[in-house]
Predict the structure.
Amino acid sequence: MKPINKYSTMKNEEYIHLIKRKDKTDLLLISYCVYIVLLSASCSDFFSSLKAQIVFIVFSVLILFKNNFRWPNDRTGIFLFISFGMIVFVHYLSSGVFMFGSIKFFSMLLCLYYVLRTYNLLFLKKLIDVIFSMTLITVPFYILQLININTLRSLVSLFNYSIQTQANAGGVYIFVFNISPDGWGDWYRNSGFMWEPGAFGGILIFAIVFYYLYYNYMLNWRIIFLFFYCMTTVSTAAIFALLLFLALVVVTVFQKKSYMLVLGFVIILLVSIKVYTLPFMGEKMEFYAESNMDFRYAYKSTDFSSGTSIGRFSGFLIEFEKFKKNPIFGHGWDSNYREIGIGNEWTNPSGLAVLMGKFGIVGIAFILIGLYYYSLFRGTGYIYRNIIVFIMILVPLFSNPFQINLVFWSLVMMGIVNSKRKLFLRIHSSPNLN
């Protein structure tokens, strides 16, 4: 099979040189990455709309035409196209509904796949760098939020692009920072450029994992900054993922020193026990577990006038109820839930549960395969590191509605693109990478 793009036959050193040379010059790629981050944030009326998703598809096609991508030569892309089409057809046969939501979703995934096939690591590096740059921009806003949130809200409210319902409740969104409405959370929690602190924490976890792998399991100032800044989200899932990251660092640094490895894990265990006693950790998880086990009761007791989220555990049980009816291919993107005794006005805060219900075993297997190969960023030399990376990426997906988050899907598709390639797995460390 002939190479499908100009990067596929390059040696590792040549590819790294290409990244360093093009990293600051491809303005179209930078703009594309910024658009993906804003679309993933979905904090404004436009970026949470169907129009924004269509613009993403058009933007992707422009990127591909600019690079003269040869579509017919990509067998994996053709396989994905046929597979996605078959899933839509199966959903139509089982429900009698032609699901345009599934078509839109699969179209976005195909666009992302082809862009990754064209740019490969260059795209993912730039996307994470954009996230890092936007995170740095949030710092002064967050400091002002801690000093006086009302003053910050009054200063930036003139440029408010928040979703109308949140804007009416006092929320302010200026693309690089989001202030939650009054009463929607603790004033000290950092939402960054995402719609809420937990989602921001999830995006930072993705960035931490990427940089740690990219720099060959070595800590640097970016990773350290993101680690501590992620704590400002005070997110249960993010803190849990950070504890996993500490375990990853211990496994990496002391993998050949058994006594230090044991000592490191003992310290992490003690820290984890202490963290679990914090109100936003153990107490919060126990509350969700106890109050959400009966999803029908949770649905009936939810006040949809103040919010539509039904809770992670309830959301998972609802999707599992639907999953049992169509376990292989799921029930599709546009299905309803009235057959299990609830309405459709609720939202599920667990992206993993949503994808399990909508696309079944096939969908979950696709995600796991992609993340498995992504976790092999640096090869298969130490399986425990790969497992920890794998779980770290799944944690934000379980705790946030990331089912259509393009940053998350970039990681999955990166694994799919490179599942049979050696270049991605054997990038040499270089002090000149930045």
